[in-house]
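Task: sequence design from structure.
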């Protein structure tokens, strides 16, 4: 099958259809903006709004903004809250590890004149976010960081009448997602930028679990489940999208590739670090948030390689420090989420990037 045969089919998941099998990943924490989501939609791809870290009201405002910008389909990604590590049987160990980590971070905070944050649990208000979407028209809802459960997926189907996709990092997670009613899965390989979508962060593993590459994971999952599979992780151009399509994926989900689009909310020092090649490579680290995530290997990631497995506590602990570093333009202490394909990142309008991805996908020999 040539890529020219694949591309016109577009991406179909239940009632959702878009012209191109290209998904712009949800990127919580700043990079995703309504302009980026709408720009991808207008170009024929699927833009994903990131609801992670937001209140339902803040999410709804962004959704309304997207809908003012485009009539095309877009999706919304919701983080699951997960369990509070401070209510686990290991809570006293976790508390001690957090206190040690706070002490370890003190010199970094002092350097930026920042006060470390309150290491605490936050509820992502998942059910409330689903209810808040009832006044809007998302074409797809995706969940990350666990099994949304048959009840929540059922609620999306009943209330919003749109398909649901769940991020998975193993065949076990893919099977469980489908058993809960997922209409599609997003197979995220180890190359992916940002947080790994692991359902369980194994503290004994530096990467939180098996380091399965996207191509291997995709092949395994396509064999295992009967629902459409979106591939994510290290996909940096249209040829790589064509390659995952040829392997049986219905689309490629790209995050890092969109980080330097004009419409993205990526901070100036983060953009510079990607484009100036300030760092040599990437690393999966818990240093910034307490959950394994792939970042450029900057000073902070290098110094704090043994951060505790305690999300979102570490995220809140480091947040003021990261904000101060961002304001000061110092990339060395910022979470610089990036996938292994980060060297291909280019600046410019999202329409240009989408046109290039489409050309690379369809105009291949
Ligand atoms: C800056 C950044 C933020 C991200 N935030 C989210 C998110 O909010 N929700 C989510 O499901 N995935 C998130 N991801 C992961 C992406 O969905 C996707 O798996 C990843 O970007 C694919 O790898 P790539 O970056 O090599 O393209 C994020 C990735 C990046 C780079």
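Answer:
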């Amino acid at each position: 099958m040539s890529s020219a045969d694949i591309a016109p089919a577009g991406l179909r998941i239940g009632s959702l259809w878009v012209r191109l099998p290209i998904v712009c990943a949800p990127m919580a924490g700043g990079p995703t903006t309504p302009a980026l989501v709408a720009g991808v939609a207008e170009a024929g791809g699927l833009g994903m709004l990131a609801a992670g870290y937001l209140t339902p009201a803040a999410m709804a405002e962004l959704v309304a903004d997207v809908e003012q910008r485009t009539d095309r389909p877009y999706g919304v990604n919701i983080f699951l809250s997960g369990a509070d590590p401070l209510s686990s049987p290991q809570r006293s160990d976790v508390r001690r590890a957090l206190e040690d980590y706070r002490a370890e971070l003190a010199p970094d905070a002092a350097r930026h004149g920042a006060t470390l944050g309150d290491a605490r649990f936050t509820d992502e208000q998942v059910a409330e976010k689903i209810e808040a979407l009832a006044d809007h028209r998302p074409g797809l809802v995706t969940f990350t960081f666990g099994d949304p459960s048959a009840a929540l997926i059922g609620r999306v189907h009943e209330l919003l009448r749109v398909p649901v996709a769940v991020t998975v990092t193993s065949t076990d997670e893919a099977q469980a997602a489908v058993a809960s009613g997922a209409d599609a899965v997003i197979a995220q390989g180890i190359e992916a930028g940002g947080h790994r979508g692991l359902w369980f962060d194994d503290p004994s593993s530096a990467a939180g679990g098996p380091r399965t590459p996207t191509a291997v994971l995709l092949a395994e999952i396509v064999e295992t489940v009967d629902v459409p599979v979106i591939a994510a992780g290290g996909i940096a151009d249209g040829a790589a999208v064509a390659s995952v399509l040829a392997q049986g994926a219905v689309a490629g989900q790209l995050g890092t590739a969109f980080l330097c689009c004009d419409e993205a909310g990526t901070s100036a020092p983060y953009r510079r670090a990607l484009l100036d090649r300030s760092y040599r490579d990437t690393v999966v680290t818990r240093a910034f948030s307490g959950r394994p995530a792939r970042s450029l290997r900057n000073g902070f990631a290098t110094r704090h390689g043994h951060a505790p497995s305690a999300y979102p506590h570490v995220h809140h602990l480091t947040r003021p420090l990261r904000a101060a570093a961002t304001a000061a333009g110092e990339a060395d202490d910022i979470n610089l989420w990036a996938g292994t394909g980060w060297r291909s990142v280019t600046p410019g309008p999202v329409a240009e990037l989408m046109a290039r991805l489409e050309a690379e996908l369809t105009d291949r020999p």
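The pocket of flavin mononucleotide is lined by residues 25-28, 31, 50, 52, 77, 144, 167, 188, 191-194, 232-235, 253-257, 337, 339, 341 (CB under 6 Å).
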